[in-house]
Amino acid sequence: MHPNWLPHKLDEKIMRFKGLVPPTVPTLSNVQTGVKENSSITATCTAGVGYPKAGHIVWKAYQNGRSVDLPSEIVITSMNVSQPGDDKCTVRTQSSVTLKVNRLHQNISLACFVTNQDFKPTTPETCTDPATDLCAQTDPAVVTYPLSKMNLTREPASTLYEGARVTLKCQAEGNPLPTYTWTKVGDENRKLSSVMDGLVSTVTLTSLNKSLDAGDYSCEALNIVENEKYIFLGFISLIIDENITQTSTTIQKTPTTVTTVTKTPTGTGSPEATTVISESGNSKIID
């Protein structure tokens, strides 16, 4: 016997003897959280809400581990119900939610809490322990939708030259995540190896060759939603220029040499200076 069972049962019997019936841990049913976009997720929460002052069921929403406001599109209906074995001191409430979802509701989760002014006047922020928090929470919603758009880019985006490298990138939006197939148009037998970089499919071409690599490339994205195939096809072109190597031409100029030659004119005793300029192997005499 669990050590906490007897005191708990005795407390419950004492409270019932006094005419007080505590609320019970809620249960979920009719839960539908995996749906196509623009369809509805549903859940029904049932719990005893206490007696004689009946409590009520409240709903909270969470997304990606954080508390969020209940979507404005949500519809909540509640009613009192009975189950076999209920006595006149049992007040049982059933609350149902319906939410028409789109892709922005991805991973949303709904939780119901039982609150009663005499027993549990406030609800906790999160449904951590259903037994003590008096709560029940759905699994995160999985919203599927067909491919809606595609984006193709390349890096670098500048002019491509032979011998360089380039990375082609392709991303399509859809859930389930699409699979990708790359093809060089006109050379469909060529195998292009692609890898996933996060949500982006990439193909890297190295040592670009103008005759082999220039041209159009196609990216095909495929996903399947409710047994229907959806395909997006996009194209990107590569223009490759020849790798022009610029060579610098150095013009060497023979230094100008200035030489002074002294000569003595015939019949005089005074020397006369003559300048000889030598340029590029040529000589010029200036008297």
Short key terms for the protein model shown above:
rod-shaped; disordered C terminus; 5-stranded mixed sheet; glycoprotein; disordered N terminus; 3 helices; 4-stranded antiparallel sheet
Protein architecture, described:
A hairpin with a 2-residue loop joins strand 16 (215-225) and strand 17 (228-238). The protein starts with a helix and ends with a strand. Strands 2-10-12-15-14 form a 5-stranded mixed beta sheet, with no helix packed on it. A 4-stranded antiparallel beta sheet has the order 1-3-7-6, with no helix packed on it. Residues 1-10, 246-268 and 270-287 have low confidence and may be disordered. It is rod-shaped, with a radius of gyration of 43 Å. The chain folds into 2 domains: 27-140, Immunoglobulins (Immunoglobulin-like); 145-241, Immunoglobulins (Immunoglobulin-like). The chain is built from 3 helices and 21 strands. The longest helix has 13 residues, at 5-17. Helix content is 7%, strand content 49%. With 287 residues, the protein is mainly beta.
